[in-house]
């Protein structure tokens, strides 16, 4: 039976992580477990930045963006010697189970620790929604609301000037933010890793749009192309003048939406419940509105095929 739970956030932060930490802390205490915060993700675990948390430690955190535990990326955690040091630090505090909140890199780290004997349960927290085992990751909804708020504002000005707005959004390996927000704002075009990037097609769609619209919106995921160059091409080849806006890290900030707060809180409770049942090596996923625990390996390799369906809708609706 576990007695002491550690909690950490790792990888890119996401709105709702604080709500998940709060839920893990309070559920642990409710079940008479001691709970320890590990600062700055796996780096902090390696450096021994560990502190006991209490009910009060998580007061007034629920509504705040970011993660009060701090986060970091530590690719070196794939090295077993680094993980040995992390385990020694856990042993020093008598921590026998770990809840890790983050994306796929975080889950790979947790899986490796679990195989070395530390009971780990993951909670998917990333704005990218790129953990295939779960319908939603914590932070995705808030980030999308930030994106559509920005694009609605851009539309006011691009429509006044008869312009095309090109918006670069986050999601280096996944076009979920681009495609979902593309539908939500009625974008003329979305280009992501999944949809591909065809400059002639973009020019053709924008030309057509210019025949009956005062503006056009093109959403592109980061790392796909240089959006300033794309703006030049659209300005040259279509009747619209184009301007590019990179939304960047603003997408990761802000107070979490209701959806993210509820998802994070319920996933936090479930994570501790799974540990209490003796489960580990798994992550909490929302599948069809139900929370389930899925082994890390399975959740990471599952196929999520909703994106191209949504893309088809987007192509009809502009
Ligand atoms: O993983 C979330 C994410 O925001 C990605 O969308 C983006 O590519 C990346 O993190 C940016 O990372 P960093 O904060 O290290 O620049």
How many strand elements?
Answer: 11
- How many domains? The number is 2
- Main sheet strand line-up: 3-2-1-4-5-10-11
Ranges where pLDDT stays below 50 over 5 or more residues in a row are none
Alpha-beta classification: alpha/beta
**Architecture of the largest domain, according to CATH?**
3-Layer(aba) Sandwich
The fraction of residues assigned to DSSP E strands is 15-25%
First-to-last CA distance: 56 Å
Count of DSSP-assigned helices: 11
The Cα radius of gyration reads 21 Å
Distinct small molecules bound, one entry per kind: 6-O-phosphono-beta-D-fructofuranose
Shape: elongated
Order of helices and strands: EHEHEHEHEHEHEHEHEHEEHH
Q: Tell me, rounded to a whole number, the average pLDDT.
A: 96
State the major sheet: 7 strands, mixed
Level-1 CATH class name of the largest domain: Alpha Beta
**What is the CATH topology classification name of the largest domain?**
Rossmann fold
- The portion of residues assigned to helices is 40-55%
List the defining traits of the structure above.
binds 6-O-phosphono-beta-D-fructofuranose, Rossmann fold, 7-stranded mixed β-sheet, single chain, 11 helices, 11 strands
């Amino acid at each position: 039976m576990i007695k002491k739970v550690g909690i950490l956030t790792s990888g890119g932060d996401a709105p709702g992580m604080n709500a998940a930490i709060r839920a893990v802390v309070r559920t642990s205490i409710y079940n008479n477990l001691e709970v320890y915060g590990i600062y700055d993700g796996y780096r902090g675990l390696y450096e021994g930045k560990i502190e006991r948390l209490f009910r009060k430690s998580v007061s007034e955190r629920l509504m705040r963006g970011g993660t009060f535990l701090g986060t970091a990326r530590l690719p070196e955690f794939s090295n077993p010697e680094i993980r040995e040091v992390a385990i020694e630090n856990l042993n020093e505090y008598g921590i026998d189970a770990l809840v890790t909140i983050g994306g796929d890199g975080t889950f790979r780290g947790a899986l490796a620790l679990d195989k070395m004997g530390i009971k780990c349960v993951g909670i998917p927290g990333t704005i990218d929604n790129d953990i295939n085992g779960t319908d939603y990751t914590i932070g995705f909804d808030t980030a999308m609301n930030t994106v559509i708020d920005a694009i609605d504002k851009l539309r006011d000005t691009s429509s006044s000037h008869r312009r095309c707005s090109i918006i670069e959004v986050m999601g280096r390996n996944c076009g979920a933010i681009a495609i979902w927000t593309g539908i939500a704002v009625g974008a003329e075009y979305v280009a992501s890793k999944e949809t591909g990037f065809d400059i002639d097609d973009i020019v053709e769609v924008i030309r057509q749009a210019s025949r009956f619209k005062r503006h056009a919106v093109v959403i592109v995921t980061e790392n796909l192309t240089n959006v300033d160059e794309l703006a030049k091409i659209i300005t040259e080849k279509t009747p619209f003048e184009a301007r590019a806006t990179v939304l960047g890290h603003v997408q990761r900030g802000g107070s979490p939406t209701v959806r993210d707060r509820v998802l994070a809180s319920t996933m936090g409770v479930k994570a501790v419940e799974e540990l209490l049942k003796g489960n580990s090596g798994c992550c909490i996923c929302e599948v069809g509105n139900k929370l389930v625990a899925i082994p890390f390996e399975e959740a990471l390799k599952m196929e999520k095929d909703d994106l191209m369906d949504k893309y088809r809708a987007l192509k009809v609706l502009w």
